[in-house]
Amino acid sequence: AQKITQTQPGMFVQEKEAVTLDCTYDTSDQSYGLFWYKQPSSGEMIFLIYQGSYDEQNATEGRYSLNFQKARKSANLVISASQLGDSAMYFCAMTQRRSQGNLIFGKGTKLSVKP
Amino acid sequence: ETGVTQTPRHLVMGMTNKKSLKCEQHLGHNAMYWYKQSAKKPLELMFVYNFKEQTENNSVPSRFSPECPNSSHLFLHLHTLQPEDSALYLCASSQDPRGTGELFFGEGSRLTVL
After folding, report:
1. Of A44, A98, A101, which has the smallest distance from its Cβ to B31's Cβ?
2. Residues of A in contact with B21 (CB under 8 A)
3. Are strands A10-14 and B73-79 parallel, antiparallel or unpaired?
4. Taking Cα atoms as reference points, which of B98, B78, B73, B86 lies closest to residue B41?
5. Closest by alpha carbon to B5, among B22, B29, B18, B28?
């Protein structure tokens, strides 16, 4: 069965420093997509970054980059130059086998940025 | 105007009440979703609608009844819920379920069942 694992329930990072949020996944599919979402206290899930399983380069979006290691089945999110507004829950997700576009999510990591 | 709007943002109901959650998307998307987010659990997919047709029901109890009158609106009708149904219910939309899968979420409806 497909599964997303986020082993860090909570993380602290100093403002302006970089932080890595871990995500490992399990799937027998050859084709899949990996996502990271941010959920601030308001509740809305905000899309951050996407990595396709056949993409040869790691995805980057501004201060966000995805460290994709296919052989290890890991898709860690790196946030550079952390800002106070980055404090939120972060969820790793992947497309499901049964129907692309429907995502399965990890339990999330709560990131707190300290001034 | 946000892309996906959910109302109400907060709802408290008794187990015998009937209420509805509403979701509206202004993005021109063709697929809409209901997810449930319980404390300390991953988001759980409940229903998927593609072009107004239900394409996924993830073994959701019948006390949750979805309705999708058009591609822009999605409802979740609630009837005789249980306290364990208390959660954040998130609506999402996407251009097409067979695309990259990027979902655009609303801010959620926080439901408390007494």
Report:
1. A101
2. none
3. unpaired
4. B86
5. B22
Integer angstrom CA distances of residue B55 from A36, A65, B2, B39, B51: 24, 33, 26, 27, 9
Residue B99 confidence (pLDDT) above 80: no
pLDDT tens digit sequence for A54-69:
888 999 999 999 999 9
Mean pLDDT in residue range B45-57: 87
pLDDT at A23 over 80: yes
Partner-chain contact B48 A102, CB within 8 Å: yes
CA distance B54 to B35: 14
Instruction: Write out chain A residues lying below 8 Å of B96, CB-based.
Output: 101
Whether residue A43 and residue B41 make contact (CB cut-off 8 A), yes or no, is no
Residues with Cβ within 8 Å of A74's Cβ and at least 6 positions away in sequence, in order, are A22, A23, A24, A25, A67, A68
